[in-house]
Every structure is written in structure tokens, then in C-alpha cells.
Design goal:
By secondary structure, the protein is an alpha/beta fold. The chain is 34% helix and 20% strand. Helix 9 (224-249) crosses helix 10 (258-267). The longest helix has 26 residues, at 224-249. The chain binds 6-O-phosphono-beta-D-glucopyranose.
Length: 465
């Protein structure tokens, strides 16, 4: 794991005025400065097409940082941070403009600085940026961070990977999935591994069903152009939720090569076909979606997806993994819910709930005798809320903060590997194809509902309310 010592870094961000930079990257870099993990002599260059001067860019990101920074929202620190930030107006799709970046870079003294190049842009711009960067002198030790989605189909992801691996050394390519920077996702293996309570029940003898849910209250916001071509399956399942599934289901949490184990889970996912898709997938679209900016009026893109998947490994024999994700749902949360088989028919099921966000919690539901003269069973809950404790919430880095810091320290442990990405695209391409072939509709659901009602049919009969 990357250390907590201060590091000198030079960070170049393509997509300097985009949503990701404003909401996540700049606040994360600011947090790293405030928590003394980023040296104040570091330098951040934001590249964008808008004609900002440096001062105008500072004014632009100031409010974003104030709104989204986790800690230390004081004027002095922010002034110090802004003094580290520069802006270069450049059309990064135009190869001729890279000489301006070259000129800018040559004015900096960069020895002893960790070098990061962040592609916080739509994947359609990756190729032009990579080709442009190849025309100038870059530090051979520079790490390149690639924002998801990594491609939009298996074929395009392969092309992109080929291009990148030709241009840069594989050890310098960091394919980010920010869910891997979330505290409770990292905690899953520790919870399972270090507690016989949980490690002893982590298989099909005890587990009836695993649910992985990530819902949001927001809609597509300003990202209609990207989202309408992607949809919930490619936007959330192929990456974030498959990471979560493969961490939850991996065979040996104490093994040293966790990524190989995650890969094995992805490779064991039972293929969904046109014949079995009816029992495996339900897609929905929130009402009013087609009136959102940049969405085609006849769009059938799913903003909600529920999947019932099986991992074909002895440990998970016949255990359904239900994945649910959607926009414009009634609340924002990400959780893993593990439901155990009942001890006898009719007895309420034990349940382990790992809440990843917005709060970081673990809940265990179990049965006791009802107090008093009754012998009836009564379900109770034990709860550990980590984020409710001020000391932990203050000291827990945001996902992007952790990932940027790791990359500055050349720590690739929690970044996605190409073979994982390739395997998950293979599965997702087939799933999308099967849904289309089977002619299943994308069901409408009201905003602030939890997806289309049809999704409930994916739960095992015994668990339906
Ligand atoms: C992004 C998706 O990767 O993750 C967004 O593109 C989604 O559509 C976001 O809103 C969710 O991230 P988080 O950290 O808020 O759960």
C-alpha cells in the first residue's frame, strides 16, 4: 500500500473543466495537500478547451473545491493550493497544438517529482490524446491514469488497449475504477477473512443469496451524450459492480494475488443467453428520461438494470448474485447484502449487510427469543457504523484521493487489470446482445421509485415479500 508521507508530484489533467475534474480530482488533490500527503511544491496543470486565464480558472474551480473538499476548507490552504494550479487552453483533439504543451513543460523543473497524466475525458478522445502525447517529450516514468469506461464494447476496449500498450510501458498504465478506492469495498476481504463468524459461512452451504445494490437519486445530469450511448449496464455493472461482485465472491481472501482470484470469478460467471435472459435480467428507464438534454427522444437506453447471475464454482453452487443499479431511485446507497438460508422452515433469515455508502456500516440481523413469557422468535440487529465516528470519517480518504495517492507512489494494487476488463466486456457484450435478441422491453419506472417492479421476480421465491 502507498504510504502517507508527503510526495512531490506533477499532475497533468486532460479534461480540466469537466465534471470529474471539478467534483472529484481537484477536491481530492486539495485534500492530499491539506492532509500533508502532497508536497506544496507540487504542480497541477489543467488542460481544457475553454479560453480561461489562470486566474479565471482558479475562480472557476474555487467553488467546486469548497463544495466537495472533505477537509480543511480554509481560505489560506485554498490559496496555497490554487497557487499550485495552472491552466493551459488547448484543443487536445488537434495534434498540432501539442507543441504548446511541450513548450509549457520545458519551462518546468521536474526532477524528483512523481509524474501523472490523467485522461479525465470521454474515451472517444483517448486516441487523439495518446497520439498527441507521442509527438512531445514526456518523462518515461510518467504514470497515465485512464478514467472509465475503458472502451464501450470488447472490440473497442481491445483496440484502445493495443494503442495504449504500444505507446506506454504497461506498468505505467493505471486503469482506474474509483469503487476500488472506497473504504468499505476494501474492508470486505478483512471482514470475511478475519472473522470465523463470517469466513465459516461464506459459501453455498449457508448462503441463500447475495445482493449487490448501487442506487442513486440523480439522473443523467449533464452527461446525456455519454450516458445515452452507454446505459446502466455499461456505466455501472461492467466496472464498479463487477469489481464488487468479484471481491465478494473470490475463492481465497488470504491469497496474495487477489486480482487473479477476481479474474477467476469473472471467468466463472454463467453466460446469459437469449434463452435464459428472461430469468436473468430486467432493464428499466425512468419516466422523463427522453426529455433530458442530449437524450434521443426514442431512446431505449436502460437507466436501471437488475441481473441475476451465477458464479459457476463449487463454493457458489446455485447461489444467485442479484445486482441492481439505477438512476432516479428513492435513495442513494451502495450495499452488499448476504442472506443466509433459514435454520428451519419459517425461521427468519440471518443477514449480513455491508453498507458502502453513503454511510459505512455493517449490520448483522439475527433471531432471539421474544422477551417475556413468549417463545416466539424475534429478529434483531447489531450495527457497527464506522462513518458515524468523527475520527474515522475525518481520517478516511475519498476514493479518488486514495487512488491518486496510490498512483503517485507507483502502487497499482487497487487499479483494474486489462484481463479483468476484457473478461467483463466479453460477458456484458453477450448480455446486451441476448436482451436485444429476446425482444424484452425496457420497462418504464416512475422517478424516485426503485426501478421497475418486474425486477422483483429475480429474487428467489422464498425471499419475495
Ligand atoms: C460513475 C458513473 O462511474 O460512477 C456515474 O459513470 C455514477 O454514472 C458514478 O453516478 C457513481 O459513483 P459514486 O462514487 O457516487 O457511487
Amino acid at each position: 500500500m502507498s504510504g502517507t508521507e508527503s510526495i512531490k508530484a506533477r499532475v497533468t489533467i486532460f479534461g480540466g473543466t469537466g465534471d470529474l475534474t471539478c467534483r472529484k480530482l481537484m477536491p481530492a488533490l486539495y485534500n492530499l495537500l491539506v492532509s500533508k500527503q502532497l508536497d506544496p511544491s507540487s504542480h497541477i496543470l489543467a488542460i481544457g478547451r475553454r479560453p480561461y486565464t489562470k486566474e479565471e480558472y482558479h475562480a472557476f474551480i474555487h467553488d467546486w473545491i469548497m463544495q466537495f473538499a472533505r477537509i480543511g476548507k480554509d481560505g489560506e490552504k485554498l490559496t496555497q493550493f490554487l497557487s499550485m494550479v495552472d491552466y493551459l487552453q488547448m484543443d487536445f483533439m488537434n495534434i498540432d497544438e501539442y507543441s504548446r504543451l511541450q513548450k509549457y513543460n520545458s519551462s518546468l523543473h521536474e526532477e524528483g517529482y512523481a509524474q501523472l497524466l490523467y485522461l479525465a475525458v470521454a474515451p472517444s478522445s483517448f486516441e487523439a490524446i495518446v497520439k498527441g502525447c507521442l509527438t512531445i517529450d514526456l518523462d518515461p516514468n510518467m504514470n497515465i491514469i485512464l478514467e472509465k469506461p475503458f472502451g464501450d464494447t470488447l472490440e473497442n476496449a481491445k483496440k484502445l488497449n493495443l494503442l495504449l500498450e504500444k505507446a506506454f510501458q504497461p506498468q505505467h498504465l493505471y486503469r482506474i475504477d474509483h469503487y476500488l478506492g472506497k473504504e468499505m469495498i476494501r474492508n470486505i476481504l478483512s471482514i470475511r477473512c478475519s472473522n470465523p463468524f463470517f469466513s465459516n459461512i461464506w459459501d453455498s452451504r449457508s448462503i441463500e443469496c447475495v445482493e449487490i445494490e448501487a442506487t442513486e437519486t440523480v439522473g443523467v445530469e449533464k452527461r446525456g451524450g455519454y450516458y445515452d450511448a452507454a446505459g446502466a449496464v455499461k456505466d455501472m455493472v461492467q466496472n464498479h459492480l463487477f469489481q464488487l461482485l468479484s471481491i465478494t465472491a473470490l475463492e481465497d481472501p488470504s491469497a496474495s494475488d487477489i486480482k487473479a482470484q477476481q479474474l477467476a470469478v469473472l471467468q466463472s460467471l454463467r453466460q446469459v443467453t437469449a434463452e435464459n435472459i428472461k430469468d436473468s435480467a430486467v432493464f428499466g428507464q425512468y419516466e422523463g428520461y427522453t426529455q433530458e438534454p442530449k437524450i434521443s427522444e426514442n431512446s431505449t437506453t436502460e437507466t436501471y438494470a437488475a441481473l441475476k447471475l451465477y458464479v459457476d464454482a463449487p463454493r457458489w453452487k446455485d447461489v444467485p448474485f442479484i445486482i441492481r443499479t439505477g438512476k432516479k431511485c428513492s435513495d442513494r446507497h451502495t450495499s452488499v447484502i448476504i442472506t443466509l438460508k433459514p435454520s428451519a422452515p419459517g425461521v427468519p433469515r440471518n443477514r449480513l449487510v455491508i453498507r458502502i455508502q453513503p454511510s459505512e456500516e455493517i449490520q448483522v440481523q439475527f433471531n432471539v427469543k421474544e422477551p417475556g413469557n413468549s417463545d416466539a422468535l424475534h429478529q434483531v440487529e447489531l450495527e457497527y457504523c464506522q462513518s458515524c465516528m468523527d475520527i474515522f470519517s475525518r481520517n478516511t480518504p475519498e476514493a479518488y484521493e486514495r487512488m491518486l495517492n496510490a498512483c503517485m507512489h507507483n502502487d497499482a494494487e487497487w487499479f483494474s487489470q486489462w484481463d479483468q476488463i476484457e473478461t467483463s466486456w466479453k460477458f456484458i457484450d453477450q448480455l446486451k446482445k441476448a436482451y436485444k435478441e429476446a425482444g424484452i422491453p425496457v420497462y418504464a419506472y416512475p422517478q424516485m421509485a426503485d426501478g421497475p417492479v418486474q425486477k422483483d421476480a429475480l429474487l428467489p421465491l422464498s425471499m419475495r415479500s
